[in-house]
Amino acid sequence: xxxxxxxxxxxxxxxxxxxxxxxxxxxxxxxxxxxxxxxxxxxxxxxxxxxxxxxxxxxxxxxxxxxxxxxxxxxxxxxxxxxxxxxxxxxxxxxxxxxxxxxxxxxxxxxxxxxxxxxxxxxxxxxxxxxxxxxxxxxxxxxxxxxxxxxxxxxxxxxxxxxxxxxxxxxxxxxxxxxxxxxxxxxxxxxxxxxxxxxxxxxxxxxxxxxxxxxxxxxxxxxxxxxxxxxxxxxxxxxxxxxxxxxxxxxxxxxxxxxxxxxxxxxxxxxxxxxxxxxxxxxxxxxxxxxxxxxxxxxxxxxxxxxxxxxxxxxxxxxxxxxxxxxxxxxxxxxxxxxxxxxxxxxxxxxxxxxxxxxxxxxxxxxxxxxxxxxxxxxxxxxxxxxxxxxxxxxxxxxxxxxxxxxxxxxxxxxxxxxxxxxxxxxxxxxxxxxxxxxxxxxxxxxxxxxxxxxxxxxxxxxxxxxxxxxxxxxxxx
Length: 478
Hints:
Elements lengths: L1 H14 L12 H20 L3 H14 L3 E2 L12 E6 L3 E6 L9 E7 L4 E12 L2 E9 L12 E8 L5 E6 L19 H4 L3 H4 L7 E4 L18 H14 L10 E6 L4 E3 L5 E4 L2 H16 L8 E7 L16 H9 L4 H9 L2 E4 L3 E2 L21 E4 L3 E2 L10 H13 L4 E3 L9 E2 L3 H6 L3 E6 L1 E2 L7 E4 H17 L1
Parallel strand pairs: 1-2, 4-13, 4-14, 14-20, 15-21, 16-18
Antiparallel strand pairs: 2-3, 3-13, 5-6, 5-10, 6-9, 7-8, 7-10, 11-12, 12-22, 16-20, 17-19
Helix pairs in contact: 2-7, 2-12, 7-12
């Protein structure tokens, strides 16, 4: 009996795809590496709450690691050359030139830097009942009710008529004021709570409370007696005094409101990280760290790291993955040869570095438990995304999936499946289909995340580390 049981156990070990919790068996050295990566990542989250701020952090790190702006680079690309391009301050592409020419294919990581948020409308500031408010238009997929009654910070840029760019950040430093969106008290919310969650808070009700003190003239020369909106005037006066802006400057501004709280450890065991904007910065950061870890060696193939904008609204616009920015950068690596560029793409491999929904036992009914990704069980591979009948998916081919899995296995990086949910319960997309459109092999591959698209998303530190190691192995061996 004992011998038979042992044989069966060995056969099941060989044939079954079983996953352990990645925390099991972690040694002291690895645990320290996990915490170091998590600490640097939390700092990144706090410094980069908008795509522009993330680009600033990334470009600063690239330059500190010897990367040169490709627009000012006037030499011939040689193995080991490190170049990058800052695209309108909102997306970044960087490359380390390999021993093989780019036409023979590149190893590419592609993440996105934008996250769901509240943007100001073009004419946002108004006064009602002696309260000043900002009118917003939400960006990306959100549950609108989640954005009420939390502290919000104001980030962004305004460019005035003289062309001067003014950076605004209010609500992040100790002592800063914060903003909020009010909600109805339960005592009067009977009708509201009978509505569907999607309309319990309407989009037009996501107005940000900005002030309540009317303007007080500082001298007799300033006459405000005839001004009806004195609270609005007071806020405009404050903004003008500090930033030199006037109301019409809002018309073309990029002002975003994001949660004001900092990234934090979650759980008594501190095994998780909770923060705003982890989709997709929890993949962007390990991608950048893996890329930089290899930047000082001369790789066999050219390595490329791409951080795009506007993924949350379909990757459109001149800083999104559907623009020609990526091709424009890559053609330079191919010596300006269009045919070489096409050959490069057909021979390149890319991981679309993006998150997947982690299984949540509180909402088990919408997940396919057999195909879901789980917190603490490693980097998640998603062969396809999309919705319904795989609409909007690139659906990676079997050969490339096997190649990526083999790389991870050789490097002892635990990976797991990553379906978003049950087939007809919803869906989503990444930049993978735009990379696939160019002809390259691409697979979605990233960190499982809880409470995706909420103001406070949660990931596991060990998944962040496993994802870093997976990206590192891919860049080396693909």
